Amino acid sequence: MALAQRLQREWISGGPLSLLLLPVAAVYGALLRLRRLFYRLGWLKTEVLPVPVVVVGNWIVGGAGKTPTTLALLALLKTRGIRAGVISRGYGRADEAAVREVTPRSSAAEAGDEPLLIRLRGGVPVAVGCDRVAAARALLATHPDLQLLLSDDGLQHWRLPRALSILVFDERGIGNGRLLPAGPLREPARTRLGPQELVLYNAAAPSTALPGALAGRRLSGAVELGDWWRGGPARLDQLHALRGRPLIATAGMAQPQRFFDMLRAEGLTTIEPLPLPDHHDFATLPWPPGTPDVLLTEKDAVKVDPARCGTTRVWVVTLDFHPEPEFERALDGHLARLLLPAA
């Protein structure tokens, strides 16, 4: 664990361990270039799908905000009357090779935590599969009225066609600029965008030299876990009513400190942070029995049955994520291009 934490730090600033891994990163980079060459020569092929695909992804390992971006995009598409579905790998599923449609009755073990959250919050058809092309075809077979697909992650899944890529960055930017495992990059960074690419920053200031738009993110409220499962709304006054109480705040995500910092920014200064690994399964509840109040993210809430919590009041804290108007205008321009042939 200490070695992994050290490497995470060096992925941002560089250091001797990162330097030691540069030869491995060079091999990884060579394999990426070879794979791209195979696609250019036609030895590997990008598939064709009957509707446009918008990929929401990032260059950097770890949670940069892809799922909140996907949910925000779904809300924007809904206001424009566009029927969209979502495909995702469904990381951490019991059988990642299987292609399945996610329903409100699916479990996180079957669907993956993020796809299940998207299905519950977005209210759109969702399919999961490590082969995203197969997931897309399965979803379109059962929902032929869909006009567009969003891929939650999949930027490096080159078999998947994409009419638009939305690159998401957080405060880490491109880190130390090195490829895995010497750095956090899953593909080489570039200084220019392609014509079918948009950048969305969810940090307070742009973290790369690429032109892009900002997204405002803040906590929008809290709701008790049972009410959340019944579709009840989160309210900011309920979140603020927890100020001054002894609270355990837990987060099974790539950047749990971000959640804790946002809670403190809302005046919840008495929290005891309980960070967990990304995609933690909550097979055992991680807080001590009898804990009065626990705060969870929505990503974690999909894995917790209220009946398991006993006397503990578990609060689901929701996120408000809104791209600025500049992003919406750029997106509308692309949507007009993508959907024109079907008009």
Please give the structural blueprint:
Elements: H1 2-13, H2 16-20, H3 22-41, E1 53-57, H4 66-79, E2 84-88, E3 100-102, H5 108-111, H6 113-122, E4 126-128, H7 132-142, E5 148-152, E6 164-169, E7 197-201, E8 213-224, H8 225-229, H9 236-240, E9 247-252, H10 256-265, E10 271-276, E11 293-297, H11 298-301, E12 313-323, H12 325-339
Parallel strand pairs: 1-5, 1-6, 2-4, 2-5, 6-7, 7-8, 9-10, 9-11, 11-12
Antiparallel strand pairs: 3-4, 8-12
Keywords for this entry:
single chain, 343 residues, alpha/beta, Rossmann fold, 12-stranded mixed β-sheet, 12 helices, 12 strands, 34% helix, globular
What does this structure look like?
With 343 residues, the protein is of the alpha/beta class. The chain folds into two domains: 16-211, Rossmann fold (3-Layer(aba) Sandwich); 219-320, no CATH class. The chain has helices spanning 2-13, 16-20, 22-41, 66-79, 108-111, 113-122, 132-142, 225-229, 236-240, 256-265, 298-301, 325-339; strands at 53-57, 84-88, 100-102, 126-128, 148-152, 164-169, 197-201, 213-224, 247-252, 271-276, 293-297, 313-323. A twelve-stranded mixed beta sheet has the order 3-4-2-5-1-6-7-8-12-11-9-10. β11, α11 (298-301) and β12 form a beta-alpha-beta unit. α4 runs parallel beside α6 (113-122). It is globular and about 60 Å long.
